[in-house]
Amino acid sequence: MSLLATWCILLLASRSRLWTASNDSPYKSSVPWSGSICTVIPSADGSDDAPAIISAFEQCGQDGSVLFLNKTYHIESVMKTTGLNNVTVDLQGTLLWSTDTSYWRSNSLQLGYQNQTTAWIFGGNDITFMGHGYGTFDGQGQIWYDLGQNISNLAGRPISLTIANTTNSVFSGIRFVQSQFWSTAITHSENLILEDIYVNSTSNSTWSTINTDGSDTFYSNNITFLRWSITNGDDSIAPKANSSNILIQDSIFYGGNGVAIGSIGQYLNAFEFIENLTAERIICYECQFVGYIKTWTGIQQGYPPNGGGGGIGYAKNIAFRDFVAINTRQAIAQITQCTSYIGLTGGCDTSKFQISNITWGPGVGNTVTSYLAQLQCSAAAPCPDINLVGNFGLIGTNGTERQITCSNVVDPAFPCTGSAE
Ligand SMILES: *[C@@H]1O[C@H](CO)[C@@H](O)[C@H](O)[C@H]1NC(C)=O
Ligand SMILES: *[C@@H]1O[C@H](CO)[C@@H](O)[C@H](O)[C@H]1NC(C)=O
Ligand SMILES: *[C@@H]1O[C@H](CO)[C@@H](O)[C@H](O)[C@H]1NC(C)=O
Ligand SMILES: *[C@@H]1O[C@H](CO)[C@@H](O)[C@H](O)[C@H]1NC(C)=O
Ligand SMILES: *[C@@H]1O[C@H](CO)[C@@H](O)[C@H](O)[C@H]1NC(C)=O
Ligand SMILES: *[C@@H]1O[C@H](CO)[C@@H](O)[C@H](O)[C@H]1NC(C)=O
Ligand SMILES: *[C@@H]1O[C@H](CO)[C@@H](O)[C@H](O)[C@H]1NC(C)=O
Ligand SMILES: *[C@@H]1O[C@H](CO)[C@@H](O)[C@H](O)[C@H]1NC(C)=O
Ligand SMILES: *[C@@H]1O[C@H](CO)[C@@H](O)[C@H](O)[C@H]1NC(C)=O
Ligand SMILES: *[C@@H]1O[C@H](CO)[C@@H](O)[C@H](O)[C@H]1NC(C)=O
Ligand SMILES: *[C@@H]1O[C@H](CO)[C@@H](O)[C@H](O)[C@H]1NC(C)=O
Ligand SMILES: *[C@@H]1O[C@H](CO)[C@@H](O)[C@H](O)[C@H]1NC(C)=O
């Protein structure tokens, strides 16, 4: 294969869009370009750039590179770019998603779990996707926060980027601002590193940034999150069904829920698991929790995304360690097996989903409540091997009370001060 780049010149007949690149292009990059290179030129009139992006991946998605200039690209339609192999994606500019919520609600692509949908399904093997700390996904999410009006899982509200069926790949230096819904989902994937990622979804209205999770994983193994900065109003990172060997390191979360294991157990009689997760050296600033685990009850009520229950399986070998938790809004550690259809309560002792071997600590910081931990395990599946290192002696509460509530925790090595609801 020639070492010289094969410049990719495409004439998109349908749109008369010429993509071009030349050897004296002002475009500079540290990327080790090789193979076919497609430079996506944004439309001059601000029209939809998605067809050009899809074509670039079709042309250069095997042993090639796809380059985005330091320009704004308008994304007005869904994208599916899968089956890529040995490709470098260099994002120097901004991908700006349109605010046509009716279009997105009827056209977003199915994620294949919880009825969730996405604006872009992306995947393949041996991919390097670089944003250099400035390549940006801008979901223009404020319109979604205002449309959602604090309602969870508005149907068709799209995940910005879904990494699907992807192996042996690295995503680095990407910024996700004002995400429409979850910033990223990772599904059916293995051996990924996602590093130096910035997420910030902040609402300027009375409506919250509910569902703006930083990243959710499903059916995925060996996924490493390094140096994420996440500002949002929901789960910071949420490993869900069949997530294993997940490492989250050296990250800072502002205002979200912390590392949220689950929810899981949402599908009647489905066996799902979460195994081997370490979250270490996390700074959690005004998070609701540092680490928490939530399962649906054992009684199915309604259907996903907002209903369900009755799932089986296990979550085990999970550690949240070396954290700094500042002004934690509820508790450092939480387990709940009470999740059920919105507005419904009860059934907290019915889940057969087995939680075991979970460790929080060592860590320092404080909560602004009287709670250090709230550990509510189901009577149908009590939780063994639950550990709070040093009884959270280096963590303060607001006041003199230091509550650790427990239900169905097997032989706790720490003092339970009451029962957990
Ligand atoms: C990846 O693509 C480049 C450019 O075509 C090629 O030089 C290299 O050998 C490919 N690597 C693999 C593992 O195929
Ligand atoms: C991108 O372009 C803008 C203005 O056109 C400039 O301010 C900015 O420094 C450029 N960014 C990079 C990383 O080159
Ligand atoms: C699933 O999503 C579709 C469209 O996205 C929506 O019409 C339907 O109500 C959703 N189902 C549930 C149970 O929320
Ligand atoms: C990923 O692979 C799974 C299993 O083969 C398949 O069910 C799913 O449709 C694929 N997803 C995408 C987005 O291609
Ligand atoms: C996990 O993924 C990383 C990054 O892709 C890779 O280097 C490592 O070998 C994988 N680990 C295993 C056990 O496959
Ligand atoms: C997140 O965005 C908001 C609003 O633009 C800004 O005030 C805040 O400083 C940002 N947070 C971080 C950590 O960059
Ligand atoms: C909130 O953000 C939206 C989208 O950026 C903007 O149009 C609107 O003017 C902002 N409202 C306020 C009150 O700042
Ligand atoms: C929406 O939820 C946020 C966060 O919980 C809350 O502060 C805000 O008051 C709610 N807005 C309305 C109008 O209820
Ligand atoms: C999840 O993992 C379990 C245990 O390996 C397996 O039985 C189940 O089929 C997996 N679920 C899916 C949808 O792949
Ligand atoms: C979890 O880690 C243990 C110990 O390293 C290993 O034996 C086990 O296979 C791992 N589980 C999965 C699902 O990879
Ligand atoms: C408990 O989980 C930790 C990882 O957090 C693992 O190292 C240890 O081997 C597990 N213990 C058992 C008994 O499996
Ligand atoms: C801390 O406790 C004091 C006294 O009970 C109370 O007035 C205050 O609102 C609490 N602060 C927070 C942030 O919960």
UniProtKB/TrEMBL annotation:
GO molecular function terms listed in the Swiss-Prot or TrEMBL record: lyase activity; polygalacturonase activity
Superkingdom in the source lineage: Eukaryota
Cellular component GO terms, alphabetical: extracellular region
Protein location: Secreted
Entry keywords, A to Z: Cell wall biogenesis/degradation, Glycoprotein, Glycosidase, Hydrolase, Lyase, Secreted, Signal
Pfam families: Glyco_hydro_28
SUPFAM superfamilies tied to this protein: Pectin lyase-like (SSF51126)
GO process terms (BP): carbohydrate metabolic process; cell wall organization
Signal peptide: 1-21
InterPro entries linked: Glyco_hydro_28, Pectin_lyas_fold, Pectin_lyase_fold/virulence
Family: Belongs to the glycosyl hydrolase 28 family.
Protein name in the entry: Pectin lyase-like protein
Organism name: Gloeophyllum trabeum (strain ATCC 11539 / FP-39264 / Madison 617)
Taxonomic lineage from the root: Eukaryota, Fungi, Dikarya, Basidiomycota, Agaricomycotina
